[in-house]
Write a structure and sequence with these properties.
Elements: E1 3-8, H1 13-24, E2 31-38, E3 41-48, H2 51-60, E4 67-73, E5 88-89, E6 95-100, H3 106-115, H4 128-137, H5 144-157, E7 162-168, E8 175-180, E9 185-188, E10 193-196, E11 208-211, E12 216-221, E13 224-229, E14 234-235, E15 240-241, H6 257-263, H7 265-273, E16 287-292, H8 294-311, E17 315-319, H9 320-323, E18 334-340, H10 346-357, E19 361-366, H11 372-376, E20 379-382, H12 395-415, H13 420-441, H14 444-454, E21 459-464, H15 467-483, E22 486-491, E23 508-513, H16 519-530, E24 535-540, E25 551-554, H17 563-581
Parallel strand pairs: 16-17, 16-18, 18-19, 19-20, 21-22, 21-23, 23-24, 24-25
Antiparallel strand pairs: 1-4, 1-10, 2-3, 2-4, 5-6, 6-7, 7-8, 8-12, 9-10, 9-11, 11-15, 12-13, 13-14
The structure holds fructose -6-phosphate (F6R).
Fructose -6-phosphate (F6R) binds near residues 295, 340 and 481.
Length: about 600
């Protein structure tokens, strides 16, 4: 989705802004633009398509200046075009602004501004903001304070979500920024500040950050920073040092982020497990809801199995976009766990706010320090997977699975619902995962060969029972999103209730078999598809009868609950190698964005 970058300091800002935009490319976008303030003129360049197009434009007509803002746009209101790209200006070309989020009342504001004589040149919701700022600025003293007042007054009129950076041509040292429901961080350098919608964009310049809160506005110059609420009451803010390494957000010799991140899973899991979790769970919870989207929701399904088995509390998993609109029956005896790698997914944040309104106790699981979800929930636990740049989630998923198992162990211990011995065994299994994943990764060539054979298939099926079915859902999602092969995940026993009609000669069926107690039943289901001509490819940690299946990939033995963190790894590689074989952009699959900040 959209990305923001800004700079104020002593350096030429153009290369910094372009580099920041490139670092943000992974979020998905369709146009890009930059505004640089030099003297009293704002120089704006925009282009449709890749940041490279913008860079070519700037090379022809180089921007200088030490203060600027830039943006990658993922179209919501209005098609991808140069006119709709940010930065946007007011009619008098006094203000330039970049915006992430959606202004829900833009039609009313546009109508109001039209009545005041303003005109609009784009189809965006954003264009109302610089004009609204201008409208208020006209009523202020023409000072920096007046500029700040005007932005604050405009922010109060906006409904929806926004992270904005604003330049004013009369104040060539100043950037004003503000947010509501859309992230913004300010990185501190020496006599300079870097601003971004997410940390990886500026991690190579600084590791000291201010995280803007909702309804907060900040006034920035190269050596000045102030924070206010929208009534302009000033407050202090803590500077937070991030332990992320600079390498975390570059490819570090890998061809793609996705392969790098698949291979980082042992470290990501190790770092996630190696934290002290301090939480006392009240025994008064009668139910648990786990709410998330996409891959994070699939991790939640593993969490459900683990929590229900160990803690004996009914646990429900729901997609956030459904949960938020269906008036769920929850109250102060409900624990709601929200999982989000980015911590910025609009539906998950809205679901979290709803749960709080209904007085549920809320826990967030996020991979991004200071993310919206981490600040909104009563308690936040982090996965320490490091920045996940590839759109397809891999290391965040396995880290979420491990963190949920850790929480289940902790809850079960407090509630005394599982034996100490069982919990110790599971703990030990968790600690073995990094080594076991390394072992799987050593055999990735086998998966690569298989992927080459299946790269041009039209459909695939993933079958499993119990916890293996949850892995099927995740494996099927990975395949769809990066290889564009149609795929379906089914509980193996459900196939004959309809979908088996789709099995034809040579249809590829991937079976996951780690559920020991359900092994014979799943094998029978696979034999049913073999009898109808399917080719079968198996991931297992069980002894299987010989010569039934076309391909068997064996993974190390582990407990039921930790098995998804192992069985997904060959299937992540499978999707990755298929996409590579088809020459697709694995890190930036079509139509997708890394962090889905609109509903
Ligand atoms: C799939 C994928 C998405 C995300 C989903 C939620 O590979 O990455 O399905 O899992 O958009 O994102 P977060 O976890 O950031 O809330």
């Amino acid at each position: 989705m959209c990305g923001i970058i800004g700079y104020v300091g002593e350096k030429n800002c153009t290369p910094i802004l372009l580099n920041g935009l490139k670092n943000l490319e992974y979020r998905g976008y369709d146009s890009a633009g930059i505004a640089v303030l030099e003297g009293n003129s704002i120089n704006i360049k925009k282009s449709k398509g890749r940041v490279k197009n913008l860079e070519d434009l700037i090379e022809k007509d180089l921007c200088g200046g030490n203060i600027g803002i830039a943006h990658t746009r993922w179209a919501t209101h209005g098609k991808p075009s140069k006119e709709n790209a940010h930065p946007h200006e007011d009619n008098s070309h006094t203000f330039a602004l970049v915006h992430n989020g959606i202004i829900e009342n833009y039609k009313e504001l546009r109508h109001f501004l039209c009545e005041q004589g303003y005109s609009f040149f784009s189809e965006t919701d954003t264009e109302v903001i610089p004009n609204l700022i201008h409208y208020y600025y006209e009523k202020q003293e023409k000072t920096k304070d007046g500029f700040l007042q005007a932005v604050a007054l405009a922010c109060k009129k906006l409904e929806g979500s926004f992270a904005i950076l604003v330049l004013c041509k009369y104040f060539p040292q100043t950037i004003i920024l503000a947010r509501r429901n859309s992230p913004l961080v300010v990185g501190k350098g020496k006599n300079e500040y870097y601003i971004a919608s997410d940390i990886p964009a500026i991690l190579e310049y600084t590791r000291d950050f201010y995280f803007l809160d909702d309804n907060e506005i900040s006034f920035l110059e190269s050596d000045i920073i102030h924070f206010f609420d929208f009534d302009l009451l000033e407050h202090e803010k803590e500077l937070i040092h991030s332990s992320l390494s600079r390498n975390s957000s570059n490819k570090n010799g890998y061809e793609d982020f996705m392969l790098k991140e698949i291979e980082e899973q042992p470290q990501a899991i190790f770092d996630t497990l190696n934290q002290d979790i301090d939480l006392h769970l009240s025994s008064s919870f009668s139910q648990i809801y786990i709410v998330a989207c996409g891959t994070a929701m699939h991790a939640g399904l593993v969490g459900k199995t683990c929590i229900e088995t160990l803690c004996k509390i009914p646990t429900f998993v729901e997609v956030a976009s459904e949960f938020r609109y269906r008036n769920p029956i929850i109250d102060s005896h409900t624990l709601c766990i929200f999982i989000s790698q980015s911590g910025e997914t609009a539906d998950t944040i809205a679901a979290l706010k709803l749960a709080k309104q209904k007085k549920a106790k809320t826990i967030a699981i996020s991979n991004v320090m200071g993310s919206s979800i981490s600040r909104e929930a009563d308690v936040c636990f982090y996965t320490y997977a490091g920045p996940e740049i590839a759109v397809a989630s891999t290391k965040a998923y396995t880290s979420q699975v491990c963190l949920l198992c850790m929480l289940a162990i902790l809850f079960a211990k407090q509630l005394k619902t599982a034996s100490d011995k069982d919990l110790e065994v599971l703990k030990e299994d968790l600690l073995q995962l990094p080594k076991q994943i390394e072992n799987i990764l050593e055999h990735k060539d086998k998966i690569q060969i298989l992927a080459k054979q299946l790269a041009f298939e039209r459909d695939m099926f993933f079958l499993g029972r119990g916890i293996d079915y949850t892995t099927c859902l995740e494996a099927s999602l990975k395949l769809k999103e990066i290889s564009y092969i149609h795929s379906e995940a089914y509980p193996a026993g459900e196939l004959k209730h309809g979908p088996i009609a789709l099995i034809e000669q040579n249809t590829p069926v991937v079976g996951i078999l780690t559920e020991e107690a359900l092994l014979e039943k799943t094998i029978s289901n696979l034999q049913e598809v073999i009898a109808r001509g399917a080719k079968t490819f198996i991931v297992t940690n069980q002894e299987l009868p010989k010569n039934i299946f076309d391909f068997v990939f064996t993974i190390p033995k582990t407990s039921r609950f930790t098995s998804p963190a192992l069985s997904i790894v060959p299937l992540q590689l499978f999707s990755y190698y298929i996409a590579k074989q088809k020459n697709l952009d694995v890190d930036k699959p079509r139509n997708l964005a890394k962090s889905v900040t609109v509903e």
